[in-house]
Structure prediction request, 361 residues.
Amino acid sequence: MDLENLLREDFDKIEQYLPREQPFEAGWLELNINENPYPPSRVILDEIKMAINEKLRLYPEPTGKDLRKMISSVFLVDKKTLTNPNNIFIDNGADGVLENIMKTFINPGDQIIYFYPTYGLYKTLSLIYKAKKKEIKLNDDFSIPESAYSLKGKLIFINSPNNPNGKAFSNDVILKICKYFPGIVVIDETYGDFCQTTALPLLKEFKNLIIVRTFSNSFSLASMRIGYAVANDKIIKAMNKVRLPYNVSYLGQIAAISCIKHRDLVFKQNHKIISERKRLSETLSKYNGISVEPSDANFIFVKFSDKSICLKFIWDLKEKKVLVRHISQPGLYQYMRITINTPDNNNKFLDIFDELTKKYL
Ligand SMILES: Cc1ncc(COP(=O)(O)O)c(C=O)c1O
Prediction:
């Protein structure tokens, strides 16, 4: 068998989305991935454990009915948005939702638009689904350029708060895009629970808008792979037609429902992350030659005056078993992205960082 000849013709053109370095051994401080440093609360873990019973032999409820009800009636209720379970679609993490959007709307050759820099999966999905892709460079302050308001295409991906810089786009900006863009507008709010800004209230006005959210980061359930979309019921119906059967696990659904039930505990942990984000940003920006981008997410984007100094910091941090994210792409070489951790771990990071400033700044 000649495997090369059996692969799809454009196989070599697809750029695989590569997850970050993950040591899989104890003793590392991993600030290079935006996981929540706090485990799910004991009561949530207990509810998941209780659900490990004879039901594991059964297929899960196929549409996540109870979870959709919980999201719409409890979680979205104060967000001035659509609150019917038929406005919600559940999938395997935000990534699963994003892929399902592609499956629903994209023909080969359709125009997809996304910004630069942003989450790398939009490019990978465009390549897999043979879309034409247009990357629009964000302004130097990571705001959306004026040219974005006259764009034409089938679908635009907007990540808000945007990975890697962390800032959310205002609803004035999103509203303007929804008004003028002729296709589907996808707002990926994977980090949306770490700030007050959300485009959810715009859903009542715009039928071309899909908001994607997840339980991975703010609800500490990354391993469970639960994401959801909120949109007009016609969009949700179409997305259901092409999704894989039983796309969300039984335990995942139970875990997400439990998180919503005990959301006050979850929000308390997120408040700690938000106040630590402020502390880290203020502390790091006091050093000469270092500035910190404003962030609405659970990470901060730190700029060094010089690329080589930034790399020296990253290498030395790694020697001390601390991983931060370096995005080796044009315009981003001077930056490191740091995920906010617990106060103790953040102190550990700050102590090492301070030593390095004496060496390199
Ligand atoms: C912008 C963005 N969207 C989606 C995801 C994936 O989220 P999930 O774990 O829910 O699939 C990530 C994770 O890194 C992300 O940064």
The mean pLDDT is 96. Residues 34, 93-95, 119, 159, 163, 188, 190, 214, 216, 222, 227 surround pyridoxal-5'-phosphate (CB under 6 Å). The CA atoms of residues 142 and 200 lie 22 Å apart.
